[in-house]
Amino acid sequence: MSEQNWKNFALLLVDVQKDFWSAELETAFPQFRQNTAQLLQFCRQAGIEVIHLREIFNPDRSDWLPRYRMRGRSPCVRGTPGAAPLDEAAEVPGERVIEKQTQNGFHSLELFPYLCNNDKRFLLVAGLVTSVCVAFTATSAAQTGFLTAVVADGCADYPEAHALTLKRYRGFLLDVANVGELTDKHAEWYGQIEKLDGLGDHSRPCAGCALEYAECEGHPVIEGLKRSLG
């Protein structure tokens, strides 16, 4: 692992928060918490940047989704115990935490330009729950231009929803791998990055946000795209 170059990779750990973890999920996926800890250990040792995405809503309901407002309750309200991460998913100093108010991490205005500015090309996605926040975030990453893989045993959901989600998107928009397979997948995934590099700057995710995010000003890929676009 020490000889593998993971600098263009990032892990998006999605919504591993107490309000999304239940006794039912723990029964169906008893290894989830252990797998999450192993995944984070692997990424930290390998030099894969870890980004924690967390659903957080204000107590005054100002940013609640319409359905949450209508029913009068929301998960992960700021300051409540349910908004906190599971112990295994807590960030360590230096790791970025990005809050969101939808089930899709790419609805955050912070995530996309941050990934582009730090030259992240391949995203690993894991967390809770597979068919909702993980799937929405992972498929958006793939449609935005990132190579993407879901870490299957780093996710949990109703078992049938978990299996169907992975079956539906595997090979179509996403790759799927378990924590123990990541090292063996490196050569294949890095080869995919190199193949895209050979297709030019327009094959990079930055092409999609080149003219939209002021935060990307000065990025060499962005500046090259602007010149080519006139």
General description of the model:
There is one protein chain. With 230 residues, the chain is an alpha/beta fold. The protein folds into two domains: 9-197, Rossmann fold, CATH 3.40.50.850; 200-230, no CATH class. The chain contains nine helices and six strands. The protein has helices spanning 23-28, 32-46, 66-71, 111-117, 130-144, 159-169, 182-197, 206-209, 220-229, and strands at residues 9-14, 49-55, 96-100, 122-128, 147-156, 175-177. The protein has a six-stranded parallel sheet, with helices on both faces. Helix 6 (159-169) links the parallel strand 5 (147-156) and strand 6 (175-177). Helix 5 (130-144) packs parallel to helix 6. The mean pLDDT is 90.
Keywords:
230 residues; alpha/beta; Rossmann fold; 2 domains; 6 strands
What's the CATH topology name of the largest domain? Answer: Rossmann fold
Tertiary shape: globular
| H-E order | EHHEHEHEHEHEHHH
Spatial arrangement of strands, main beta sheet: 3-2-1-4-5-6
What is the C-alpha radius of gyration, as a whole number of Å?
A: 18 Å
* Oligomeric state, counting identical vs distinct chains: single chain
Strand content: 15-25%
Low-confidence stretches: none
Helix/strand/pairing category: alpha/beta
Number of domains: 2
CATH superfamily of the largest domain: Isochorismatase-like
Mean pLDDT: 90
Based on the structure given, which CATH architecture of the largest domain is correct?
3-Layer(aba) Sandwich
Largest sheet, in brief, is: 6 strands, parallel
The helix content, as a percent range, equals: 25-40%
Number of strands: 6
CATH uppermost class of the largest domain: Alpha Beta
